[in-house]
Amino acid sequence: MSATVGRPEKPIPDAASRELRALAQRLRDLRDTAGLSYREMAASPDSGRYSAITFQRAASGERIRRKGADGKQIVAGEQIPSENVVAAFARICGGDVEKVLKLRQEAVRADAWRSVWHDYNRALREGRDAGDPPPRHISPSEVVRLRDLRTAMRYIYLQAGAPSSRELERADPTGHLRHTTLDRVLNHRAKPRLPSPELFEAFLTGCNVAERQAWKDAYQRLVDGDERLRARADARAARSTPNPDWHTWGLDAQERQERMEEVKRKIGHSVDQDWYDEELDQERDKEFNEQIAHIDSLTAEELDQLQREANAGPRQAQLLAYMAKRVRPADRAQPLRAVPKPRRSRP
Q1: How far apart are CA 313 and CA 257, in angstroms?
Q2: Fewest Cβ atoms closer than 10 Å to its Cβ: which of 131, 282, 286, 312?
Q3: Is residue 139 within 8 Å of residue 211, measured between CB atoms?
Q4: pLDDT tens digits for 189-221?
């Protein structure tokens, strides 16, 4: 069937950005040159099982809308087809996949910048906290403050098309990039935070930054030149050592302060108490979830053995309380289900 047979294709909307229009037009040109209908494309062995309507939407250039908090329709962003859809489209029609994917990346990048400017200007109009303005380009040599590092990371993030933090976490093979931590680091309405060097490197890799070594050197210069940042880096290093154990699981305010003083004596620096407690809370959450996942994977016999061998202590007591609450003799054969863990209140 020829591509000219059947219902004519709708024009690309005038509201589409220049980048999205270029992508949609390129996809339409490829299909016209191949002489295929969308149904024939969906039936191709290279379709990846995408439907005809999926390919049609990829070449539509249309915008998507959502309702805002006031119930009115607002532009949420442009409908950018996924990499897999665009690649399948180009392969079926005999086009250059790399060139088409480059057009898609330009459209994604433009949409990310348009979205951040839209949110910033709207917050200003409504009198809300707009946070830092959309970031400007900063070279590694210009990073002299922690705020500069966050600005650079936001710029890199937007240039990459603002991928979701969960996508970056799933793509990180090292396991150092946690989406919740990255969200806090990139939050331009909060006080700038120093990411760990492992998270920073994983972030650069996930955003496909070419000059990763230059940025890693800039990060190290920033830490070395600031006593507070150097203290935080040293505190992280101290906690990463196997002995002593710096966890604050189940400790009260006085015990946490005593543990803090131990770290201060070891690293020889003063560390902000609130920051340190927050860092420890994150590590505690990660450790607790890992232990709960391990408990949930045990058989009834292994659970009995664990209960018999568990040593006395705040963490073990909390885990034993979890097991006692979730594991009863009548349902030991059933898999355990996690329950929300108790949160430690701050003094």
Answers
A1: 19
A2: 312
A3: no
A4: 888 888 888 899 999 999 999 889 999 999 999
Burial of 158 (0-12, 13-18, 19+ CB in 10 A): middle
The pTM score is: 0.65
pLDDT at 13: 84
Q: Which two tokens stand for residue 28?
A: 């339409």
Residue type (1 letter), 247? H
Place of tokens 């890693």: 216
**139 Cβ contact partners less than 8 Å away, ≥ 6 residues apart:** none
Neighbouring C-beta atoms of residue 103, cutoff 10 Å: 19
- Tell me the per-residue pLDDT of 256-280, one tens digit each, with 9 for 90 and over: 566 666 666 655 555 555 555 566 6
